[in-house]
TrEMBL record:
Cofactor: [4Fe-4S] cluster; Mg(2+); S-adenosyl-L-methionine
Pathway assignment: Purine metabolism; 7-cyano-7-deazaguanine biosynthesis
GO MF annotation list: 4 iron, 4 sulfur cluster binding; carbon-nitrogen lyase activity; magnesium ion binding; S-adenosyl-L-methionine binding
Record-listed Mg(2+) binding positions: 44
Domain of life, source organism: Bacteria
Name of the featured protein: 7-carboxy-7-deazaguanine synthase
Cited InterPro entries: 7-CO-7-deazaguanine_synth-like (IPR024924), Aldolase_TIM (IPR013785), QueE_Cx14CxxC (IPR030977), rSAM (IPR007197), rSAM_sf (IPR058240)
Species: Swaminathania salitolerans
Subunit structure: Homodimer.
Gene: queE
The entry's keywords: 4Fe-4S, Iron, Iron-sulfur, Lyase, Magnesium, Metal-binding, Queuosine biosynthesis, S-adenosyl-L-methionine
Length: 206
């Protein structure tokens, strides 16, 4: 759990508390399993609860209090409380009591999800980032953010899906430069798609 700026997509630059849940249904998180995972390009360590601000919270209220304290430490009494639930796959854990407890403390709630689980009611900003070999059930939301390129998931797959915004995010890794050039070219030919850069990595913030 850490304060930073949203680095990607529609809300790039927005002050946020990131709440990274442990565990994912598309990869164990262990390097030795990566090659046989459904999602092989993950850039994130989501194993365990020993990261900054990490803990196991006994109740939704306890987690929501910790988020409010983080916001206060970073931004004092300011308006605009914003939390991004991510992971790992946050929809394995985020549930209506947590959403209610976090809303009760004045937060807007965003989620970053792989789309394999339906989002509960009440989340204010739903970002779905589809992965191969997975059944996507969350086919509507605010932002579809496709890591690009993925051979089995061309952007046209999502033409009829009910999202307000469509973003291409170059796949980080050894081919990041080539992937970025390919994403730029795709966006220029297909103006419905915009380029999402992982700006936090460019400037070295979490
Ligand atoms: C680590 S995931 C966690 C949330 C959720 N499990 C998901 O996949 O959307 C957060 C975001 O990072 C993106 N991401 C993961 N690995 C990436 C990579 N190598 N390059 C670019 N984006 C990546 C994901 O697609 C997702 O949009
Ligand atoms: N600054 C920052 N922005 C992000 N947007 C999505 C992220 C994620 O890992 O879910 C992420 C992240 O890890 N850091
Ligand atoms: S679905 Fe998300 S958290 Fe899970 S392995 Fe893929 S990018 Fe990482
Ligand atoms: Mg990240």
């Amino acid at each position: 759990m850490f304060a930073t700026l949203q680095g990607e997509g529609a809300h790039t630059g927005r002050a946020s508390i990131f709440c990274r849940f442990t565990g994912c249904n598309l990869w164990s998180g262990r390097e030795q399993d990566r090659h046989k995972a459904a999602c092989t390009f993950c850039d994130t360590d989501f194993l365990g609860t020993d990261g900054p601000g990490g803990a196991r919270f006994e109740t939704p209220e306890a987690l929501a209090d910790a988020l409010a304290l983080r916001w206060y430490e970073a931004a004092g009494e300011s308006e605009g409380r914003y939390v991004v639930f991510t992971g790992g796959e946050p929809l394995l854990q985020v549930d209506p009591p947590l959403i209610a407890a976090v809303h009760a403390r004045g937060f807007e709630i965003a989620i970053e999800s792989n789309g394999t689980l339906e989002a509960p009611e009440g989340i204010d900003w739903i970002c779905v980032s589809p992965k191969p070999s997975s059944r996507i059930v969350q086919r509507s939301g605010h932002e579809l953010k496709l890591v690009f390129p993925q051979e089995s998931l061309p952007p046209s797959t999502f033409d009829s899906w009910d999202f307000s915004q469509f973003w291409l995010q170059p796949m980080d890794g050894p081919d990041r430069a080539a992937n970025t050039a390919a994403a730029v070219a795709y966006c220029q030919k297909n103006p419905r798609w915009r380029l999402s850069l992982q700006t936090h990595k460019l400037i070295g913030i979490p």
